[in-house]
Amino acid sequence: MTNSIQILDTPVILTTGIYDLLKDHIRRKKLSKTNEAALDAQLKKARQVLRKDLPTDVVTVDTLVTVKDLETGDTQEYKFVGPDSAKKKNGTVSILSPMGIAMIGYPVGAVVEWEFNAEIKKNQIIGVTPI
Fold this sequence. Notes:
Strand order of the largest sheet: 5-4-3-7-6
Order of helices and strands: EHHEEEEHEE
Structural class: alpha/beta
Strand content: 25-35%
CATH topology: Chitinase A, domain 3
CATH class: Alpha Beta
Number of strands: 7
Number of domains: 1
Distance between the termini: 41 Å
Number of helices: 3
CATH superfamily: Transcription elongation factor, GreA/GreB, C-terminal domain
Largest sheet: 5 strands, mixed
CATH architecture: Roll
């Protein structure tokens, strides 16, 4: 049986730089087949904007994001930064981490399905703050 992820009707909103970074990540085969297909589908519907035109409630680099696991009800915060800036000791996470790729481009309130450790999880973005 093949896992599949339901893609939201709402297109992701990305800066051109992040869009290109994600396309390159797909080319490098860094994702599971399920997540690669989901990300490819998201990018086909993505809306690209200039950094200054990116809404402040959309997940991108340099944002503090609060995520709720809809199965357990647990919440967790992630400080998403660029891949070269991520440092565990600073509490920052690469935007190319599994959670970063799952959330990037979605606004507060979005429910996102993504494969983590061969299991499809549903998470809701409940807060986005620029850092």
